[in-house]
Amino acid sequence: MRLAIPPARIHAVFRDIPVFRTSCLYRISSASPPPGCPGIIPPSVRELSPFGPTSLFSMRNLMKLQNFTAFAVAFPFACLSLAAAAALPVNEARGPFPAVVTDAFGRRVTVERAPERIVTVFSSNTELVAALGLADLIVGIDAMTFYPPEVAGTRRIGGRLGISLEEVAGVLPDLVLLTPARQAAHTLLGPLDKLGIPAAVLTARDVPEIRENLMKIAVLCGVPERGAAAVASMDERLAKVRLAREGLPRPRVVLMTARLSSGLFLAARAGDYTASLVELAGGTLALEEGSAFPRMAQISPEALIGLDPDVIILTRRRDEGTELGDYLERPAFSGLRARSTGQIHAVPSEEFLIPAFRIVDGVERLAAIFTAWGRG
């Protein structure tokens, strides 16, 4: 008899039984364990034969257990749980599978069964999975991800200094979503491929790519209908903004994301998705007028004063203070048009700097600011 049980189901059955959690049950179907994952079945195992020389419960494997008596007690209950798991439909209502997409690196990514344990490297991928209603499948996120609230207690697999392969493999993912930032793709793709774990690289340089990423994730997770509905919702809301702003004056805008220690500002420039949000909301990028400014994201206070934009947008996290806004209250900036007319606005950075579903909230927010400016 052979049980076709996804590795995630097997892991869910055995992970809470102490004897399995502390064992060295590694050699199964000749698959090697992921680093830092003692006593857990490798994710590359797709089918297990309960008995036989290389089976889960072969004598060779039983002898590796640290506590055979405890195993003997736990074994019947584990078998009952496995039988129940085997009776469940593998893909439930998701599909079709195998699912295939081409990622940002031109790689053909194939997922054989409905993913049940997803690692999302970087906030954008986490938010896109959540937008599909699949946040409960996320088992690993990076340290800089804080949304949605459902993932607050999820295991952290790395941070600003990089992503840990050991931590990623340790949560037994059956799908990893990542971006090229912080060398994540360079560090993880090769090892994940050797472990047999599907991994897709996603980039977002504009809104169309964000929509495309949402659909790719939906296909890989077996919920293409949800993806299509989410994309349709984005399109509908953006169309409403475009219609509402049609024919209205377009303010000259500078959107700043930070002030550097050098005294320069980081500002959105044409060619990135943050700047495209300004245009979708009905504004124009003051920095793109003519060719007076080099194609750099950094601008000086003198350049800002020279531009004298109609509206200045400052992005900040909800837990941050108003340092940048306070800085613009200095006497040197008293001549700014936006300051004298009350058109310096602080907005949540997560709506503009994370290329995911919430960018639509950002576009709607900017459109309201621009409309109020026009009435001003």
Word description of this protein:
- The protein has 376 residues and is α/β, with parallel strands linked by helices.
- Helix content is 37%, strand content 14%.
- The chain has 14 helices and 15 strands.
- The strands form four sheets. Strands 10, 11, 12, 13, 14 and 15 form a six-stranded mixed beta sheet that branches.
CATH topology of the largest domain: Rossmann fold
* Radius of gyration, taken over Cα atoms and rounded to an integer in Å: 25 Å
The class by helix and strand makeup works out as: alpha/beta
Number of helices: 14
Largest sheet properties: 6 strands, mixed
pLDDT average, as an integer? 79
Q: Write the CATH homologous superfamily of the largest domain.
A: Nitrogenase molybdenum iron protein domain
Helix amount: 25-40%
Topology pattern, helix = H, strand = E? HHHHEEEHEEEEHEHEHHEEHEEHEHHEH
Number of domains: 3
Instruction: Give me the CATH architecture of the largest domain, please.
Output: 3-Layer(aba) Sandwich
Apparent shape: globular
